[in-house]
Amino acid sequence: MARLVGKVAIVTGGGGGIGAATVKALAAGGASVAVVDIDEAKAADVVADVGAAGGDAIAVGGDLSVEAAAAAAVQATVDRFGRVDILHNNAALTAPDFLSRDTTVPDMALEVWERSVAVNLNSQMLMCKHAIPAMVRTGGGSIINMSSGAAMSADRTRVAYAVAKAGVNTLTMYVAASHGKQGIRANTIVPGLILTDAVKAHLPEEVLADLSKSTLTPYVGQPADVADLVVFLASDESRYITGQLIRIDGGMSVRVP
């Protein structure tokens, strides 16, 4: 269903996994999409897929933890499509070799902490900072930030990642509170276990099998499940939903282990 005809979206981290699935779902809904990724070649591959399916998209490269890159991504979108209606902040630092260094507080290297916060939190703030004025000029829009179940309950490792994602939750509420009357909605998606390539690379099969037993659904989440939620939150069908943290985890968070 073409729910997003005439709308323009930015998807960060759009070169693969949840981001690529979301780009394709938004384009299928009728939106024009700026695919932003630190690996511009991967973004270009997704753009090619969108074009082959009859959609309209552009690829934009850049490290969004750098403000100039975030500003340039928004400007490139406006230059090409004339407006910004949807921002999906999906970019995150999830490389297995990096996450293996994100351990406990006593063992934390400051450079790991700072880089995690820069990519997982600062990039979302910077994209909001530069997208909000563009949205206000054309009557508002929908911001969909990406958090993590790790921000809602503790584990023995990944403390920097979890703290950064907890910051995203609060950022979303403040954006919603500050700009709601200007027509801007902001919500956070809080995914649980989603079988992306990064997850498969980071977790052994036996760990994935154990985690899948914790879902209340007979299946584990796929990137397309998150993409469908983004499309809903981007559309006018969710016009009265803002400032919310929305879990998508197959019920893992409601069951006592």
UniProtKB/TrEMBL annotation:
Keyword Oxidoreductase: yes
Annotated GO MF terms: oxidoreductase activity
Pfam families: adh_short_C2
UniProt KW keywords: Oxidoreductase
The organism's place on the tree of life at top rank: Bacteria
Family: Belongs to the short-chain dehydrogenases/reductases (SDR) family.
Protein name: NAD(P)-dependent dehydrogenase (Short-subunit alcohol dehydrogenase family)
